[in-house]
Amino acid sequence: MRSLNLDQLRTLMEVIELRSFSAAARQLNLTQPAVSLQIRELEQRFGVPLVERMGKTVHATTPGRELVEHAQRIFRECETAAAAMRRFHRGWVGRVHVGTTLTALTYALPPILRRLHQDHPGIEIVITNMTTRDSVENVIQNAIDLALVTLPVDDSHLRVTPLRPETLVAILPDSTPDIPDAVTPEYAASQPLVLEKPRGAVSALVQRWLSKQLPLARTPMHIATVEAMKGIVSLGLGMSIIPDVAAVEPIPNAVVRPLNPSVPCTLALIEHRSKPNDPALEIVRNALLGLRTGPYAPADA
After folding, report:
1. Most buried pick, 67, 133, 202, 217, via CB within 10 A?
2. Which CATH number among 3.90.1170.50, 2.40.50.140, 3.40.190.10, 2.30.29.30 corresponds to the domain 94-165+266-292?
3. Is the per-residue pLDDT at 230 higher than 60?
4. DSSP string, 39-93
5. Which of 268, 242, 269 minimizes the C-alpha distance to 257?
6. Does domain 167-264 fall into CATH 3.40.50.12780?
7. Which residues pair with 223 in a beta bridge?
8. What is the pTM of this model?
9. How many CB atoms lie within 10 A of CB 10?
């Protein structure tokens, strides 16, 4: 069977939408006999009537309605293909989907994304904030291309590249009496705690650090974002434990203390070991690997 004629499908769609051969001819800038011929050829091709006249009005038959539904999907796919080719014509290089922890998105990624956008406008970068656990699952399933995560991560499917060593620190209201030089699990357990939601990687590290003090005498507040946690500490409502990168800038009405014993929370880049390489992916990967050098820049730098 020869290929479908898209012009004939378009004509059928117009005839049925406008309910008129003459109106469809005007819309398509064709003669009415040409429109009639295209519909007749379609009907001969499939061996079924596609339209029927009721007075001066044209209606679709049941086969005609179903063919129009298929035609609409065909034209949507055609437009998607054409849009993709237009992007390549304009210099589009590719699309890279990056998962990231909220901390990395807030404190590490902004200058990198700005440079990528300026230097490589042909790369479409999609950023999704997700926990380390979710990033690992999505990279393994090939739902995302790269991810910034908090170590430890151990999976044979993944290539894991540590980027920069970070550590957790305690932040406390400056009104807290007798703040120690370093915060121990015993001291932390005696304070009202403001912690990351349980599914996060930092939360798991904190729980491990506090393990000998569990169950806690007071139920911690669980907050979704580091910035919100800092805000609650600034209000004097409790102590929090956050990555040191989130405490580089002064926090109003709060003091920062190291943990004893210390808790590393290294930032790392992960990708699937079997991920095929392409120019866009390589450019974005190399930009993220640049996090191995230099201090964090403020988000508005």
Report:
1. 202
2. 3.40.190.10
3. yes
4. HHHHHHHHTS--EEEETTEEEE-HHHHHHHHHHHHHHHHHHHHHHHHHHHHTT--
5. 242
6. no
7. 196
8. 0.69
9. 17
